[in-house]
Amino acid sequence: MKKNFSVQQPNLRGINIFKDSLGRVVFYDHLTKSGYLITKKDANLYNLYSKRFVVPIFIFVLIYQSTIGGQTLDLSESIFVCFFAVLFMETLFRMHFLKSLTLIPNFHPNIKEDFITRMTKGAPKGMLTLKASLYFILAFLILLLAYTENYDQSLWIVCIIASTAISAVSVIYLIALKRK
User: Fold this and answer.
1) Phi, psi for 18 (deg, rounded to 5)
2) N-to-C CA span, the chain
3) In this structure, which long-range contacts are made by residues 153-161, counting pairs with CB atoms below 8 Å and at least 24 apart in sequence?
4) Is the pTM of this model over 0.70?
């Protein structure tokens, strides 16, 4: 009787996630042109680091809206803190997480599908519908907040840019839903 010793692969989706010739899940880094093998035990940590650009946005909103010692930070100071949060998260990702993974040098991803298909492969229709709806609601709420709080022109511009970007993500999920 032959035993199957194959390691269960994590169920990850995303723009930079590929499968190698052996069917293993690989993160492709466009900067180093290398692949990094993601095992089942690394999947949860990868999911955390894959949101490394969202965390600084939350930090920006919290810092800009909160009062620190009776004084609020202005827009430029909040952007400065957000920039360093992005830098910190990216440094942790590259110097800590990627260094702990198995490097696959000169990995060439076999790109047969566009990024929308790869990003949503295996996702149920209900999840795609939910994500598209929630992103549209978030975009609307950002604009509603700017309106109800009587933001000045610079914050209106930031809110419009954020709302437009979030709406674009929602449209991507709607396109993926239509393709299923």
Assistant:
1) -135, 170
2) 40
3) 154/75, 155/75, 158/75
4) no
